[in-house]
Structure formats: structure tokens, C-alpha cells
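Exam prep: given the inputs below (a chain plus NAI), describe the expected output before reading on.
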Amino acid sequence: MAHALDRGSVIAVVGSGAMGSGIAQVAASSGHRVLVYDTRPEAVGKAIAGIGKAYDKLVEKGRMGALEADLARERLQPAASLAELKEAALVVEAIVEDLEVKRKLFAELEDLVAPGCILATNTSSISVTAIAAQLKRPERLVGMHFFNPVPLMALVEVVEGVATDKGIADTVYATAEAWGKNPVHAKSTPGFIVNRVARPYYAEGLRLLQEQAADAATLDAVMRDCGGFRMGPFELMDLIGHDVNFSVTQSVFKAYFNDPRFTPSVVQQELVNAGFLGRKSGRGFYRYGEGIAMPAA
Ligand code: NAI
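Solution:
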């Protein structure tokens, strides 16, 4: 049986947006020293400050001890360059959902980190096999796919590409369990498990909106209040980010040879064109301000 990485292992997180900051929060509160890198240094500062506030809230609610929170905060460190990640035992990448950008990052990383370091991608939908293909040692790259918001969502898909070493996937699985998550093994099929099954939820919601069946808020309310879903499709896309969700749909569509079932939506494309990315930009299908979500239209 594979063992989890021990608490003395350093974890590096590359990309400190919505997902990277959540992954860093969970790794630090699980006892690891965590190095956080982003091409935008201000994003690292924002992520570390945001994690600090999240720990404060957990302390207020009695779910974390004050000392435990202080120690976790101290374990989080900004990294000014990729070279500073060289002591990591596991690097989790959570950057933009773009194959070429991810490949370039891992090509740089594999020359910097130790031979035993595990390289993990949090990609939602890009082939893990393809991300790894140009590496000198593709067997050490694995998908470690968390869900949003990371501290609250238990599921982690541990995704094996064609070349992924099974022992490495098992170590990542055991590590996710040690971090309090509920991992599942998956192969690198387009969208893996959850993003494949969830595609029609978004696509049919968007089609209903285009056909003017009802407005987004009504459709969300029906799915939430009567359908038993925790979130309707539009509020969920706003949470995920339209840039991310649109890229995932495009990637699954392309990977299934343009199967019409996965056709991306022009409505969502226009939101991306407008920069209305959802919660993170203050506007998507809803407007966000002072903690209130208002229909945008
Ligand atoms: P985000 O837009 O919130 O954050 C991405 C961060 O990566 C930004 O801070 C950006 O400055 C940084 N970045 C971009 N290129 C970089 C590079 N070359 N090197 C270092 N940093 C770089 O995006 P989010 O939502 O955190 O998504 C990140 C990844 O996680 C994507 O692959 C996405 O598909 C995946 N994901 C997203 C989920 C979601 O609900 N948003 C859920 C699960 C996975």
C-alpha cells in the first residue's frame, strides 16, 4: 500500500487563483510547508491574505484552534520564482486551462525539482497524457483534480495518463486522504468523471436560456429548490468562472471529435469576451457586490 507524503514534505502550488489558494490552504492546514508561486506576485499576496482570513473564520467558528491557525499561516510562504520550488516533494499546478502553457511550465519545472518530486496538475479537462507527453519523465506527472471551493469539497480525482506511474498515483491518492479528502482514481478521459457528467447540466441550462424558457435566476431556483441540486447551473458557472468553464467545454468538445452534445455556448463565449467571468470579476449571470448576488440582466 502506498504511503501519503509525510508532513515534513514541502508542497509547492503554482497558480494562486481560486483553486491554487484553496489547495495551499488545505496543504498548510494538513501540516506541510507550502510554497506558493504565481506569475502575478500580487495574486500570491492576495491568496496568502485570503487563506489567513479563512483560518480566522474557522477559529471563530471553533473548527480550528487559534495556535493551529497561527502555525498553518507560518507554513505558507510566497515564492518569487520557480527556482525557489526546488525542495518540493509535490508540485500542484493550478494555472490557466491551456495545454501549451501547462506543458511549458512542467518542462521548466522538471529540470528544477528533485528526481523524486511528483508533478501534479489540477486541470479540469485537459488530457494528463498530453500534458506529460513532452517531459523527459512523463511517468511522474499525475492529475490531482480538486473541486471548488477546495477547503469544502471532499472529492479529488487522481487522474492517470497513459504514462503515469501507478505508484505515484497511489501516493497522491493517499496524500489526498491524509488531507481529509475523499479521492477517486480516474483515467485521463476527456473531462475525467465529474466534468464529463456535468457538461449537460451547463449545456442544457444555456440552451434553455437561449430559447428563453425562463431567466437564469428562475432556472437556478428550479434546479435548487425543486431539483435538489445545491446550486443551479448559472450560479455554479459564475462560481467556477466562465473563462475556466468555457475552456473546459471547448476542450471536451475537441477531445470527442466535435461531438455536438458538447458544443460550447455562444452566450458563454460572449460573457468571456466581455470579461464577465462570474464572481471573480464581480459580474457573470449575476452581479456581485457586498456579498449579494443580483441578476445581471
Ligand atoms: P484562476 O484564474 O482563478 O487562477 C489562475 C492563476 O494562475 C492566476 O492567478 C494566474 O495569474 C496564474 N497563472 C497563469 N499562468 C501562469 C503561469 N504560467 N505560471 C504561474 N501562474 C500562472 O483559475 P482557477 O479557477 O484557479 O483554475 C486554475 C486551474 O484549475 C485550471 O486548470 C482550471 O481548469 C482548474 N480547475 C478550476 C476549477 C474551478 O471551479 N475554477 C475547478 C477545478 C479545477
